Amino acid sequence: MDNFLKKSISYASGFIGLKKDDVILASYPRSGNTWVRFFLCNLVSLKEWNGESVDFEVLNRTMPEFGVNNLMKEWTHETIPRVVKTHKKCWPIFRNKRSILILRDPRDVMVSYYHYKKDRKGEFEDEFSEFVRSPEFGLKSWFEHYDSWRDYADLTIEYEDMRENDLEEFSKVIDFLELPLEKGIVQEAADRASIENVSTAEKDENKNESPDAQFTRNGSTKQWKKYFKQKDLEYYQRLKNHYGLETY
After folding, report:
1. CA distance 154 to 25
2. What residues contact residue 236 under an 8 Å CB cut-off, 6+ apart?
3. What is the mean pLDDT of the chain?
4. Which of 65, 92, 115, 223 would bridge with 85, disulfide CB 3.0–4.6 Å?
5. Angle subtended by helix axes 33-48 and 195-205, to nearest 10
6. pLDDT for 169-200, tens place per residue?
7. Contact between residue 243 and residue 225 where contact means Cβ atoms under 8 Å apart
8. 3-state secondary structure of 25
9. What SS3 string covers 59-123?
């Protein structure tokens, strides 16, 4: 089966299989979606799997993504409702579902996404300034994504706040999902899902990869200061003014 057909089937299963009780976890790529999914998957593990270790294989097998996984499959876990990942804009099919939007400083997103596309995927060869202007990957794409979601997301959490206090932000997700979970379970799931722990596990699995080629990089904030030239900042500011972004 070729990739186009497989993708078409996956999207069809998404449109047909998305249920009213599903929760959409939306973000632009490289904004913390995987981090939140690791946290949620660890909640399932601690409550239902006797604390089985959660790696990328377990995560992707358990926590579905719209257009990737078969949403026709029954959700068998009682700990959390089915939380469906997407990097898509806010399509009409998402608007009658509960949704969580994860935001990250778009300038840091560009740095992380640049390394992901260039070093891990080999899908971009030009310099960073060209990347931020890419119609497909760059800043304008980020702003269009943000603009589509900001009036529809029921809960918005910021990556920088998660870096500052992940337990507090994850607790907002727990409250939003109305989950009756013990504080100790939430804390342990947050500890297991930390960027440092996930990054270490990935390094152990892929010992020959360079740091920039890893899916999980260092997760730091304000790294954009080392990459953005003045012309890039001016371009960012124009987009920020146009779309009315008040943060970052």
Report:
1. 10
2. 106, 107, 132, 139, 228
3. 91
4. 65
5. 90
6. 999 999 999 999 999 999 999 999 998 888 77
7. no
8. strand
9. HHHHCCECCCCCCCCCCCCCCCCCEEEECCCCCHHHCCCEEEEEECCHHHHHHHHHHHHHHHCCC
Rounded to the nearest angstrom, the gap between the alpha carbon of residue 73 and the centroid of all alpha carbons in its chain is 22
Q: How far is Cα 104 from Cα 32, in angstroms, rounded to an integer?
A: 8
Let me know: does 128 contact 55? Beta carbons within 8 Å: no
**Strand (E) positions, the chain?**
23-27, 83-86, 98-103, 155-158
* Calpha distance 128→130 (Å, rounded): 5
Q: Which two tokens stand for residue 3?
A: 């990739």
Q: Exposed (0-12), middle (13-18) or buried (19+): which is 192, by Cβ within 10 Å?
A: buried
Length of the chain equals: 248
Distance, in Å, from the CA atom of 248 to the CA atom of 226, rounded to the nearest integer, reads: 16
- The C-alpha R_g of the chain, in whole angstroms, comes to 18
Domain 3-243 has CATH 3.40.50.300: yes
Contact 180, 80 (CB under 8 A): no
Give the residue extent of every domain in the chain: 3-243
Contact 39, 193 (CB under 8 A): yes
Instruction: Indicate whether 210 pLDDT > 80.
Output: no
User: How many Cα atoms occupy the beta-carbon half-sphere of 141 within 13 Å?
Assistant: 16
In tens, the pLDDT along 20-38 reads: 999 999 999 999 999 999 9
